[in-house]
Amino acid sequence: MLYIKYKNMKLKIKNTNRKILTNFSFKTCLIILITGLFFVSCDNDLEEEVYSSFTGDNFYTDVASAELGLFGIYDVLATDELYGRGYLLYFHTGTDQERYWRQDRGLDDDLLANYQIQENNAWVGKVWSQFYTGIYRANQVIERVTVLRDKNSAISDPSTKQVSDLASYNNILGDAYFLRGFMYFQLVKNWGDVPLRLTSNITLETLKVERDPKVKVYEQIEKDMLAAINMLPVASGVKSPARVSKAAAQGILSRIYLTWAGSPVKDTSKFEKSVEQAWAVVSSGQHQLNTTIEQLTIGAPFDQLFPQVFKNLSEKVFEPKESMWEIQFSFVGDSRNDASTLGTWHGVTQHTNSSYKRGAPRRYNLPTFYDTFEADDEIRRDYSISQFEIDKDDQFVPVGRDKLKWGIGKFRRYLINSLSPDKNYDVINFPVLRYADVLLMFAEGINETIENGGALPSGVSMFNAYEAVNQVKRRARNLPINVAAPSVDVSGSGGSNFRQQIRDERSWELCNENLRKPDLIRWGILVQTVRQTGANMAAAGYSKDYDYFPAVNIQERNVLLPIPFSSEISQNPDILNTDPSNNGYR
Predict the structure, then answer these.
(1) Are 24 and 72 in contact, with CB atoms under 8 Å apart?
(2) What is each CA distance from 439 to 270, 281, 312, in whole angstroms?
(3) Is residue 324 classed exposed, middle or buried when 0-12, 13-18 and 19+ CB atoms within 10 A define those classes?
(4) HSE of 282 in the Cβ direction (CA atoms, 13 Å)?
(5) Cα-trace Rg, the chain
(6) 3-state SS class at 191
(7) Residue 335 pLDDT class (50, 70, 90 cuts)
(8) For residues 583 and 557, what is the distance between their CA atoms, to the nearest angstrom?
(9) pLDDT digits (tens, 9 = 90+) for 266-292
């Protein structure tokens, strides 16, 4: 039971159906609870003192309330500031794959997307604040649920329910540790040194702090992730795409180690740790590539071959063998609070008056990126890069003006079974981690471990690295993934040539999934790649100053973002003590 006290009354909320609760967001649950409080108390005198049990001390009383607190952390990721719009769209553009739809207009989103960033950029502040909101909620869950877990584990002769509750508390703690580590990972890779706030006890002292060094932040992230891995269930025990599994945490930790090993920290000892985590996923037998690539039944003459792994995102099909962790979105009633711009602002162009509703991409794939695909990779190229749009008569037609408006083909609103009533928001889930990414991280980690003199786990060799890459390449061409394909496969003995092959494969396989920019940064080549893309666009007959604006603006400081003024510096000037330049933006 979850009890909420109000004045001299106590409301009792039964945990009758956990599955129903997982389909509601944290905001939705609170609205229901608060609405209930209003109707129960409306006949009481207004001057009476109002109190509620919505505090850390008395809210967390059982598994139901602990899970509601956990949903509050997950809910932060699905907000408009993060994967609903801001962090999804504006923080990951400006690479060699795509350009932002609007350039040099002076609005915060296009200033951020085109490397015209200042510390007063509103979106930088919103995203920073929202990640710390999630961290605060994670701190509270960790603190309160640890008390419940320890109290339960001290019972000498537990009942069946108490044994079940103990498992639930450990699962919840695993999620909370994972989410705190994941959010700190987003902070450290975007801002570098950041404050470590590891308590929900907010005081003037805890708010006014300096930045902690990157290595210390990474060490805390590692600690949180390892704790999470020990408590999370295997993928087959996870009932929702929004909840994380042990293997998903291992996959994300592999990504964290690769980033830690790369620029700017360059701790190359972490390459072998990345291999260990990726190998744990690969050898678990819980995950595999989804090999179904079938002809779409709508959209002629663009009813092309399309992979089931991306169709599932639109159709709300949970298939965790490849799509290992997703940010989950929904559209409840007429509210877009829990919906996303994925598929509308990050998808295919669709006329507002078509029956498929509006699609207005904020990011367009570059023609120079299209040209990088290998000649026999047209299936993956054509489902990734949308060369068509939907007109007002529901006709699928070639993009009209030119190649500069090729949309994002992986996320297609017209494939959603039941469209939302909103013009700009719908329910496609965002894949944070796919097994294809794990395979490519596994290969990269193996190659870099050997190149840097490290040791591989027992049973792992360069053969595994090449086979991992080749499985991804074969699947892209709709070939059997476990059968050698000499015309497709890469082979060799590793080294710099294999490094470039892996980087190319990551570009093609993971395009428009917000991994390219972090990859370019950790490889230490973001600035030179963006500038070279400008030169490539100019050589192809496009205007670098207009058609690919990032190349005009990018500077070395842009590998990091400035600490935001309004949401941090104005309240905590001490944060600039260790770096008065604010990452070079002052």
Answers:
(1) no
(2) 17, 9, 20
(3) buried
(4) 24
(5) 24
(6) helix
(7) confident
(8) 7
(9) 999 999 999 999 999 999 999 999 999
